[in-house]
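Fold it.
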Amino acid sequence: MVTKIIDAPRKARGRPPSFDRETALVAAMRLFWDRGYEGTSFDDLIAVMGISASSFYNSFGSKEALYHEAIDAYARQAGAWFVTALQVNDSTVEAFRALFDAAAREFTRCDAPSGCMIATAATQCSPAQNRLKAMMIDQRRMAEDAMKQRLAQGVAKGDLPKDTDVDALAAYFSVVMQGLGIQARDGASRKKLTEIGHMALAVLKR
């Protein structure tokens, strides 16, 4: 859920595509988000993207390559609100309150699949898809690292006690964030997710 440096997409050879590549990518991202990698068929992909099989292969290469691009697109989208929330306030408590409030909103939007694409994706997959599983782990670790840095900033400013275990606390908040994504996927309301997030803040007030 954190932005990262992304290599520029490879340009396909031959004639330029006769469709809007970014629009097709967003459509694929939403389908993957809703159904997962293995739950999304090739036929469903080209149907929702509005392209032919030949255009798909010419522009995206393969289903796995497209999934990598879709995860990158989601990470950029989620990273925007994730990073902004952590930086919104000098107070560490209020920064994490803003983060959990933002997660509750984003995970329950009416115009997007529920939950977090990264939290629910590829936790279990076939051995052939270990690369995808590793990619999801890396994304979750980046989010945890961002929270750890924010906690360390709080310690440095005297906002948190000097003996705060920022590693354990960041891991705890990472678990909470992933749990919120799964709860939303199971149909939890925005109100419930907000309450859970606020309860998690209690560890910062001791």
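Residues 130-156 form the longest helix (27 residues).
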